[in-house]
Amino acid sequence: MSGRTSQRKGRAGELELAKMLQTHGYDVQPGQAVSYGATPDLTGLPHIHVECKRNERLNIHAAMAQAERDADHFRDGLPVVFHRRNRSNWMVTMRLDDWISLYDKAIAATPAADIPG
Hints:
The strands form 2 sheets. The protein has a 3-stranded mixed beta sheet. The protein has a two-stranded antiparallel ribbon with strand order 1-2. A hairpin with a 6-residue loop joins strand 4 and strand 5 (about 90-95). It is about 40% helix and about 20% strand. By secondary structure, the protein is α+β, with helices and mostly antiparallel strands. The protein is globular, with a radius of gyration of 15 Å. It has a single domain (about 5-115), classed as Trna Endonuclease, Chain: A, domain 1.
């Protein structure tokens, strides 16, 4: 795939993901397509740095390394990779320690009667 085609597919993925998150009530906005890397892929999820990947052969370790670098650069939250292949569901990848921290906070904020099990 050419560089321009890859950028176009990546941008389409960012717009698709933004629309899906907006449908769920999140006030996210896609980054500016003017210069890749100059702005985060998506903004508006508090405390989360979104790295959006839309390709068939994702190197998840390289994508997470990029998310970590960009999260440090933009100082906008935990590095998280949102990704999907063609004809597949979106997936979310993050570091285990970050997931545990988020999950612990969610459980602490949930009344015991609302927790299954």
